[in-house]
Write a structure and sequence with these properties.
Shape: globular
Largest sheet: 22 strands, antiparallel, barrel
Helix content: under 10%
Strand content: over 45%
Distance between the termini: 68 Å
Structural class: mainly beta
Length: 775
Amino acid sequence: MRSAYQNLLLLLLLTPFQLSFAQVKKAVTGNITDGKTGETLIGASIKITGGTTTVAMTNGYGFYAVSTIPGEHDISVSFIGYKTITQHLNLSKDMRLDFVLEPGNQLDEVVISGVKSSDHINSAQMGPQRMSIHEIRSLPMLLGERDVMKALQLLPGIKLAGEGNSGFYVRGGATDQNLILLDEAPVYNASHLLGFFSTFNSDAIKDVTTYKEGMPAQYGGRLSSVIDIKMNEGNRKETTVEGGIGLISSRLKVEGPIVKDKGSFMVSGRRTYLDAFFKLSPNKSISKNALYFYDLNAKGNYKIDDKNTLFLSGYFGRDKLNLVNIFGFDWGNATVTMRWNHLYGPRLFSNTSLIYSNYSYVINNLMEDANFEVNSFIRDFNLKQDFQYNISNKHQLKFGLNAIHHTIAPGTMTATSASSVNPITYEKRKGLELAVYLTDEWNVNDRFKMVYGLRLSGFSVLGPGNFKTYDAEGNIVKMTSYTSGQSVKNYLNLEPRFSASYKLNTNSAIKAAYTRNTQNIHLMSNSTSTSPTDLYMMNSNNVRPEIADQVSTGYFRNFKENQYEFSAEIYYKTMQHQIEYRSGADLREKDNIESDLLYGDGRAYGIELFFKKRSGKFNGWIGYTYAKTERQFDTLNEGRWFNARQDRTHDISLVGIYKGSSRWTFSTVFVYNTGNAVTYPSGKYQVNGRTAFYYANKNGYRTPAYHRLDVSATLDGKPGKKYQSSWTFGIYNLYNRQNAFAINFKDDPDNASKTQVVRTTLFGIIPSVTWNFKF
């Protein structure tokens, strides 16, 4: 009997041959762009009618391809917020048709979705969610900063990692199990100001797509989700300037044509100025302190001809925190992406990308008796080749390859001769990650659609370095030295992907998906919240790839001519080779980090409910998640399953947006979730006159429940003017909820037999105001 993997592989291989006998059809291809800016539109809908009905959507580069039988047809092109174009088509041969859509008039209402209202019914893909930048800009945020990552955490199944933290959990996965892409470049730490804000300036962002299940086979390397963010390409029609001035930061964006209608550029920058307030202090110990971040996004493109377009984009961001004579810390990301889009023919589209990504940090402890510096980085060189081949209106193949060379320096600790800290050097590690994939989008009939594919991923651990083998207690049993480029260990994994949709009627559908993902880069932390200083490590002779298998199914329904949508999804996920540290381990006290690691399993399951009103004067959504996330390690918690720290039973988000008039927009957000799973002391005892706490069940307690209400109001300037401006007023945590950031225990100073609980909070009620402008 053949295995399921063999059957699926055979199906993939035979499909193109089966299709060769299909009726010969003609292809219509082209790009769809914004008539005002020249930006390509992602997810625009193309519909051909006449005899048969064929529907397609533009891909992530604004390109579409659709095939149908020769003859007389009507072709319609539409996109949310734009006027629909319909024209007659006499199709007798393959054709190239580019469309330019003009923005529609929406002064009297707000549309809060970047996708067509019926897409979640018609699409075979389960799990993708797109959020429009207009929607993100309408939401109240901390200190008025528009934040892509914080907005995504208002969706079911995506949970905030903690107060003041840009990390997030998706369906039981840890924060490092989310693949975050900015113009195809991996971003390893998407946070500013120790996690209070994300690295993504919304002025520079064009599109945000999230996959929390059933992700297509072109994505890989993480277990739980994909956040695919694409930057604006720049205005090809005219030069514009826009920006904003807020309480803690200002931003500015300039975009315009390089050659009108052929090429454009976009440059967007943002910087905080909290350090400027420090300089006003007469106290030198305060005036010389530093606390700020900046980021810079840049992108350029040039259309050589109808078949070739070149793109170059980059992101550069840095945070700096310096307390004079005490502590210094700076970290940041840099990415560069070079892309070439090429059309080989009416059916074959190609995207070739060369990508560089670097995340690094430097820590300085400036105390005289413990002076030291730690340097660490993770650097990638990445080649991607993606193809899209449109066989017919029923089958669209996507295939390609990806090669990433990783270099990780866990850290070099240097210290002065007077320091009590011993210098430590952690060996650099290098690895090569390779993958090939094949996906077929199959429209079986008007009701049944499938997306199925395979991803074959491999990882090679490379020298140079000394590689140690450990026993179950973490003792070294063997050490082998390898030279540069020498293969240490190879891993190979097959990752099947499947998603299917069956339409019950024009307004409802049921979907199911199965996904296997592997992960070769791991984040280790021994703190209760994500920190920019957490350690990254790759597979080794001891550390194996993490593997997750997820099955899910759901019911999707639209109401009242697609103005309302509802979905209910259930999922079950198993995770292998999960990594934890031993109890009491300090990951930076010695150079053999892997001796303190444990390996086990995980599982997660839950149900997600989502109800959204998509348009009108008042709209918004309600999201609810019931979930369970557990881990099991032989030497932790006596081998019993225990709650993972990201386990939260209930998670609720309420979002409302009201268009009060042509100039006023009001919005509110309420969030509630069960407290984090944590390990608290179960008792205490005295050792040599000092208190020692006793810990029993791992993560057997909960922090208090988290909840918060935010409100905002935006006043737009008078319409019809070339110069535009707006004011946004907001209040974060309106009823001043004191949510716990950390809870610690200590002896009562008046009675050592008693214990005091110390609760630390970060934010109470915080007002904000921001002035935005564009000309």
